[in-house]
Amino acid sequence: MRGGQVAARAPVIQFTNCRILRGGALLREDLWVRGGRILDPEKLFFEERRVADEQRDCGGCILAPGFIDVQINGGFGVDFSQASEDVGSGVALVARRILSHGVTSFCPTLVTSPLEVYHKVLPQIPVKSGGPHGAGVLGVHLEGPFISREKRGAHPEAHLRSFEADAFQDVLATYGGLDNVRIVTLAPELGHSHEVIRELTALGICVSLGHSVADLGTAEEAVQSGATFITHLFNAMLPFHHRDPGIVGLLTSDRLPAGRRIFYGMIADGIHTNPAALRIAHRAHPKGLVLVTDAVPALGLGNGRHTLGQQEVEVEGLTAYVAGCLVSFPPLAPRTCPLCSRGTNTLSGSIAPMDACVRHFLQATGCSVESALEAASLHPAQLLGLEKCKGTLDFGADADFVVLDDSLHVRATYISGELVWQAEEARP
Fold first, then answer.
1. Active site includes 294?
2. Mean pLDDT of 318-342
3. Which residue, of 115, 148, 163, 350, has the fewest CB within 10 Å?
């Protein structure tokens, strides 16, 4: 009750001259905020007889829910999969820097790592609300080590694991605890995986299928056990085949539990997924598409060698590869070392920020602006069961939102109704 009284005394801010994304449409309405939440102006006027304490002219911009990135491995030189005595400072740096890209909440992601990395890093990444210090942490996304060797991608083979007979205890021993975990990516074809899926979902942890050679039947059984997400669709899984579409077939499966929606991540960076594949997925199942960056520590840096957990990554232009050796490759040359014969054409995450992914997705699919924005906000919130407070501008929701121009470039970012980042040219 005391909290409600404090909120009622807080100043009311009215954002005017804007189009707000609500109910799947861009509406020419004002956005009212008080005490960090979206306010119903009719109740304010008729029940409290109050008007706004402050008005802010948005210059005709779009106001959309803040973006939510559920798969980001690091950025700006910070690698979430490397242990240190002060992991929190690195998470804080990334949380602060992604505000300029409209991200108000995220799931720091760890790739396959040695056990000691999980045991040291996970306790240092607690769930944390966002604010002027940076985007909120919704919980950690653990991508591996329980994944397929054949489809491991950039994950180091030496640290991959299978489930032991006492599978869930093996999971606990591997990670050292699940207190700060929100998502676990695993390969459903591994023995005892369905037992693990049921145990994780019972704890409220989202299970995602990825880095897998599972056929459609195995994937459907995993969803029936509780899995709700697909990690970076098309990447690190069997390619679509008309007789057995594999995990991709979940998008149109008729064997999912009644009322269950499957969500799937897509890296719309112009590198990982051909525009035609983006269009196919979106047209097949638009309400399940979740844009993710899968950003690596090289995000925001430049060409050269960087890390991703236990591996080195070579960045060339817009592409990040697993570094095979010290040989340099000229542009467009075959990426196989003549000395060690190691191929280095394995993609290793992305270096595209979320707002760039939204713009590319919009251009590649020809979808509506509303759909592109919801893929980065509403859908990830629904995936995590947060749609009452995140990913929406409905009354009562958290006032986490991003101000965008017509070309969907970020002009300002707000968390709990507070301005936390603003473009230089937009400042008074």
1. yes
2. 56
3. 115
